[in-house]
Specification:
Length: 327
């Protein structure tokens, strides 16, 4: 697999990463055997960057990865995240004591003494970002983390953070139907030597060969209350995306791989991390690195799914809490 670099001075990883949120049961009960099979498939495919977080299954995703890598040492470049505190009530913390305690927990669950990339999952506005990055820089100096990441932030926050310490990666949602990062963040990352890690490049499953059926989703499925998957919004969105599915079929590509290939084509510093715990699905997604989209194909896709085409916001007001909006 071709590689891309996590930041201007960071490690090289496979151009396609793997989001491990579903390992923690975020989309239904997790299956250890299937999760392990997916990690094994990742090794076979050259998918070398894993993305997890404390909040994914209350540490379960980290623990599963840690158990797998005991027999596969140095096989992956792992990223994890702290900053979302679910108990006693959900809130965000970027305080020094919390960050250090959270990291120690991540290290223990992963069974390692060093994590190559550690993110603040959400910004805590009670702590100046310069102070928060200063706390993280202490962990870099101690050798406990290799680099600092930020998630769901604005270009202005990245600019401020970068005055304290280089930021290895910014992780925000980015796909054919979520294009906000095009309005400054993708460009700021390129300018500052920061990798842009794109989560949900398959639109939480909407860019699949078969349209997801919201009525069949579990009651606790995130998408059940997501505006783009509800009612008339979903009917209109799916009708438009069906043209994209047909375009993919006509070219001999699977739809999810084409959606990821579009993301890869938006910049050499972009690393998409689609999430799955299915080995077969990961193999389909990995086909994205073999799809080379030129100017004509990108223009055709833009005609099918023009910027701003989606009906409904990407999050409800409640789901937006903690994300930074900048336009």
């Amino acid at each position: 697999m071709m590689t891309r670099r996590l930041g201007s001075n960071g490690p090289e990883v496979g151009a396609l990463g793997l989001g491990c949120m579903s390992f923690g049961g975020m989309y239904g009960p997790t299956d250890k055997a299937e999760s392990f099979a997916t990690l094994k498939k990742a090794l076979d495919l050259g998918v070398s960057h894993l993305d997890t977080a404390i909040i994914y299954g209350a540490g379960l995703s980290e623990a599963l990865i840690g158990e797998f890598i005991r027999d596969n040492a140095n096989s992956f470049t792992i990223a994890s995240k702290c900053g979302i505190v679910p108990q006693p009530t959900r809130h965000f913390s970027n305080k020094r004591a919390y960050i250090r305690e959270a990291l120690e927990g991540s290290l223990k669950r992963l069974g390692v003494d060093h994590i190559p990339l550690y993110y603040l999952h959400r910004r805590d506005h009670e702590v100046p970002v310069e102070d928060a990055i200063g706390f993280m820089a202490e962990l870099v100096a101690e050798g406990k983390i290799g680099g600092i990441g930020l998630s769901e932030i604005s270009p202005a926050t990245l600019e401020r953070a970068s005055t304290v310490h280089p930021i290895m990666a910014v992780q925000n949602e980015y796909s054919l139907w979520t294009r906000l990062p095009d309005l400054g963040l993708v460009q700021a990352c390129a300018r500052l030597g920061t990798a842009f890690v794109a989560f949900s490049p398959v639109g939480r499953g909407v860019f699949a060969d078969q349209a997801p059926d919201p009525s069949a989703m579990a009651d606790d499925d995130f998408r059940k209350t997501n505006p783009r998957f509800m009612g008339d919004n979903y009917v209109r969105n799916n009708a438009r995306i069906e043209r994209f599915r047909a375009y993919a079929r006509d070219h001999g590509w699977n739809t999810s791989a084409l959606a990821v290939a579009w993301t890869l084509a938006q910049g050499d510093h972009i690393i998409p991390i689609p999430g799955t715990r299915s080995p077969g699905h990961l193999e389909e997604l990995a086909q994205a690195v073999d799809i080379r989209l030129g100017a004509s194909e990108l223009a055709e896709i833009e005609t099918l799914l023009p910027v701003g085409f989606a009906h409904g916001t990407r999050y409800t007001d409640a789901q937006l809490v903690g994300t930074e909006l900048y336009c």
